[in-house]
Amino acid sequence: MKIVYVTPGAGGTFYCQNCFRDDELLKSLLVLGHDVRKVPMYLPSNLEVNGKIADTPVFYGAINVYLKEKLPFYRHAPVWLERIFDFYPLLNMAAKKSGSTRATGLEEMTISMLQGEKGRQATELDHLIKYLRKEINPDIVHLSNALLLGLVHRLKNDLRTRVICSLQDENEWIDQMNDHYQRKIWNLMAEKATDVDLFITASDYYLNKSRKQLKIPVDRIKAVYGGIDLNGYERSSLPSNPPVIGYLCRMSEYFGLGILVDAFIRLKENSPFKDLKLHMTGGYSSDDKRFVSELLKKISKRGFGNDIRVFKSFNKENRIEFLKSLTLLSVPVPTGEAFGAYQVEALAAGVPVVQPNVGSYPEFVKVTNGGIIYEPNTSIELTNAIASLLADPEKARKLGEQGRKVVLERFSMEQMAKNIAGIYNDVA
Fold it and tell me: What is the longest distance spanned by two Cα atoms in the chain?
């Protein structure tokens, strides 16, 4: 089966769990015998899958998309000029710029993208359709998130292909906008969703949320738990002298790093765990740089600068080493997430998780029995939750082992790929 997987490139500057998961999924689908092509949009993914997929050009290059949004005359630019701005070094430079991961100021462009052939980037859609028809002629086109729904109408009409769309934390982009734009974008996405053959979510929580937001019939949406490539993950010893709490995600205020740092400081100042360490990894965008700098200064001013460690590299090999250093992991995203691959990675190493009672976190902890849930999501409650687990090393070890067993059985990328391939066969 010929499968095209369309996914935005993140530029590789921070831990993008959906990017890592998508790339691992493509590897596994290839092993299952499918002809898979990855089509990156906006920016290069910088995540090598194999030679065939890496050679696929970037479509809707970030610079061209932006220029066509802001400059009406550029919407009719010659192809040779567009190709200059799609040059990989230029796109990699764009990925490092301040606005590359920030929705504020890009509300109208988001709407235009969702309008597809009626949007300001219509010629970019022409290029994509022409390439797919000539070079691949796919049986299935799989969109990695619902912000790409503007492509669907022409994919189905021009290529006569089936279209599947994953739903993966679209709110993380849309929530940054004001209420007017949020309503407009969700309504537009719901309108475009009617053309999709099937939606896939990574949790029951996000399935139910998405059904309501996008008005999806119950028979056109399925939940498939995300998986990871389990090769290489080793058990952590769960150190207790000193204990180490960890954070594995983009180092950003949005993802709750400030909440965890405040809990860390409280534990250092007002508990028996004065020797506690904090390890962090996941990188950050230029938008997050000031926030991260201020956090590190805050920790140093309290006299705990020598008790933290930032792991700058977060490729798989380094993530495995990072996880082996931890006693527990917490990523206290204020609004929660659709899944949270960092939880699977932690439990693959036998590291229990401490998560707030929001999003899909309680669902994951219930399924794996590999951690504890607290509420409300404040630094005080997180402090108490972490302290309760650090005070009971045997409980922490038991939770980690229980979670690891379930992850090995149910959250492998091999299993996820088989589930997705089964859906492709049903839809095709």
Answer: 67
